[in-house]
Specification:
Layout: E1 2-5, E2 8-11, H1 18-24, E3 32-36, E4 39-41, E5 56-61
Parallel strand pairs: 1-5
Antiparallel strand pairs: 1-2, 3-4, 3-5
Length: 66
């Protein structure tokens, strides 16, 4: 399936939902906001949110520093 993630079109195989996508990028232990086609997805809904070909996804994670 082709997804646009953070502005880049990419092919994904074997990834069905938001939880799996976040894990693919190794962000599961970080504070992450996921937006799909302009809508923020609540973390409690990641497992049930199925990915479909052509979706536009933004993954935003926060980094501390000074």
């Amino acid at each position: 399936m082709t997804l646009t993630v953070n502005g880049e079109k990419q092919e994904f195989y074997g990834i069905a939902n938001v939880t799996e996508l976040v894990s693919h990028y190794r962000l599961q232990d970080k504070l992450v906001v996921v937006e799909i086609d302009g809508e923020v997805i609540d973390r409690n809904d990641w497992e049930q949110t199925q990915l479909k070909d052509g979706m536009t996804i933004e993954l935003v994670h926060f980094v501390g520093g000074g």
